[in-house]
Design goal:
The structure is a homodimer. By secondary structure, chain A is of the alpha/beta class. The first copy, chain A, contains 16 helices and ten strands. In chain A, about 45% of the residues lie in helices and about 15% in strands. In chain A, the strands form two sheets. The first copy, chain A, has a six-stranded mixed beta sheet, with helices on both faces. In chain A, strand 4, helix 6 and strand 5 form a beta-alpha-beta unit. In chain A, helix 8 packs across helix 10. The first copy, chain A, is globular and about 55 Å long. Chain A starts with 6 loop residues before the first helix and ends in an 8-residue tail after the last helix. The interface between A and B is medium-sized, with 30 and 30 residues.
Chain lengths: ~350, ~350
């Protein structure tokens, strides 16, 4: 028997990338195979080709339904389907869990910190979940853990192998559909999507680079990679990218993040800039968190010779009215022109952790 | 020889609906076959099924590319491809003409009244057209007519058979794709889209009702139908639905409008309400002009027994930053709930003209 104090026993090992394909088999009958879009005009401007995997059109409006459903279906396969589910979230995980629990007919309770927009609260309730508002993110986590101790199944937003495997199916689908990206970009909150994305490309297209995008104002993952230790915020950092308001990555996701090519830190102006431009070019509602991944791609493109192919995972499209007002406060579609703007905002890309 | 004063000679006759299929054959190699979307949640709420034909994803972001391209290709077929094109527009026609002229390698000059957003001006220039700003819509029309007198081909926004036939291809595609709507809804500016839509359903599904949607603040078409004569604004009426800022329908389109089931007049609040809800439910950028068609569908639905099928033509997705700020000024996603809101805004549907 291994002693509990042995560090190696507490370090999570990486999963076999095959888990992404297993997850895909499990969840695909219930979920959309989301489309891939591109903009000829954007490609012209950048001198590269950018392909967008549109998780905005996924059930509940974001990739989160993939991980949540995969976790519950894996439990069901193992004959361990829980009688109730509990979760905490500052973003789309709430709706993803509510949707997945409803799909399997299990009652769900979701704790949301009060910073979560009223429309996300309403949408989570609309999927049939019980919603409880807490003052802070920390209290939401603690309340959920108390419910878990009392017997509910705690479905974490990223710190679970089956959640990571589920999130990776977005990238898997794109690669199965024939994408051959030089680099793949995804936003990072807790690191579930980025970890799954890294696994998916290891399985199908290992030569692709994988980059995370994180708000400069909420750069705990970038700091963690730079410092080699997980940095944790005392409470949710302020950023328009609400999917990145997580307090910290987990040892489990950190192990994958360390294998990516790095994290690009994005300013709030860039979030707005790309949320506006993607609305204009793609005619789709793109969350600031997702626009961030495009910002990272644009910055990476500037370091490359023309003609590279990029895959940007547009993680979701759930945007509250107040966030819309923030996005569109200033007109960024007119001036300055795209490439000038990009150069103006180029700051150092974080080194590989 | 008929005397010029004989009224029957000046009244346009209706086209054979077959022209829509001819137009489709002509333009389809160059344009997107746009997707049809729906929202299960919206259907639940309304008690009807609403299918959206998404012209937001058409070339240049709106159905206007269809009519402009059809007009130019029909001239080319007749060996009369003009050496230059001129147009005036307060909305998407500018971009549609600029795109179509560029596709055929013809120089285009577009007169835009200064109320047109800077981003639409920029987009029109980006397709290679020369853009000239005029103080008013009336002056834009007059300047374009002077150029036409000097030899340029004036491509009008709606008062041309080939433009009408091109616009009808959006509805034709939806019906070819298997839609069986009880009623079809489209916005009305000058009436080109609605006329083409009526022709398309006559060809493939004559039992469908066809309804136009017009802003209450810019209801010249509804007034024209009620009065039996074309009503004309002295200058562009004020409404968030910029595609409906036309001064008047033409005798040509009026002849089709009189055969539709009528026009539903929509308040500015309803425009915002549905622009917000369609962004939320469809994750697509929907112009206020297009949201208006959904508003008309929702109102019609209230007059019907549950279970009706509606086809809503989402005409475009070109929205300026200032319009985004107007749309999202007030949070209409939260309160009051959908059906309550609808009842609150029900006003009389215009009788058939």
């Amino acid at each position: 028997m291994k002693p509990l104090s042995k560090p190696a026993a507490t370090l999570p090992s990486l999963m076999d990338p095959q888990v992404i394909r297993d997850a895909q088999k499990r969840i695909s009958p219930f979920l959309h195979r989301t489309p891939i879009l591109e903009s000829a005009r954007l490609n012209d401007w950048l001198g590269h080709r950018v392909r967008f995997k549109m998780e905005t059109f996924q059930k509940a409006g974001a990739f989160k339904s993939r991980g949540a459903l995969n976790a519950l279906l894996a439990l069901k396969e193992a004959g361990k389907l829980p009688s109730s589910v509990v979760a905490y979230s500052s973003g789309n995980h709430a709706q993803g869990v509510a949707w997945a629990a409803a799909a399997l007919g299990i009652p769900a309770r979701i704790y949301l910190p009060k910073i979560v927009s009223a429309i996300k609260q309403q949408a989570t309730r609309a999927y049939g979940a019980e919603v409880i508002i807490t003052p802070t993110r920390v209290e939401a986590e603690e309340a959920a853990k108390r419910d878990a101790a009392a017997g509910a199944f705690l479905l974490p937003p990223y710190d679970l192998d089956d959640v990571i495997a589920g999130q990776g199916t977005a990238c898997l689908e794109a690669l199965e559909d024939g994408e051959k990206p030089d680099a793949i970009f995804a936003p990072i909150g807790g690191g579930g999507l980025l970890s799954g994305t890294w696994l998916a490309k290891q399985l199908l297209y290992p030569q692709a680079e994988v980059w995370g995008a994180e708000p400069f104002n909420a750069n705990d993952a970038a700091r963690s990679l730079r410092e080699g230790n997980i940095f944790r915020w005392p409470d949710s950092p302020k950023t328009l990218a609400d999917g990145a308001r997580t307090l910290a990555v987990s040892p489990r996701t950190f192990a994958y993040l360390q294998r990516t090519n790095g994290i690009v830190e994005i300013t709030e102006s860039e979030l707005c800039y790309w949320a506006q431009w993607l609305a204009h070019l793609l005619k789709c509602v793109v969350e600031p968190t997702s626009a961030m991944a495009m910002a990272a791609a644009a910055r990476w493109g500037l370091t490359q010779k023309p003609g590279r192919e990029m895959l940007v995972i547009i993680s979701g499209g759930n945007v509250a009215a107040e966030t819309m007002r923030d996005i569109w406060k200033e007109d960024m579609l007119l001036n300055p022109p795209l490439t000038q703007f990009l150069h103006q905002y180029v700051i150092e890309i974080s080194p590989k952790g």
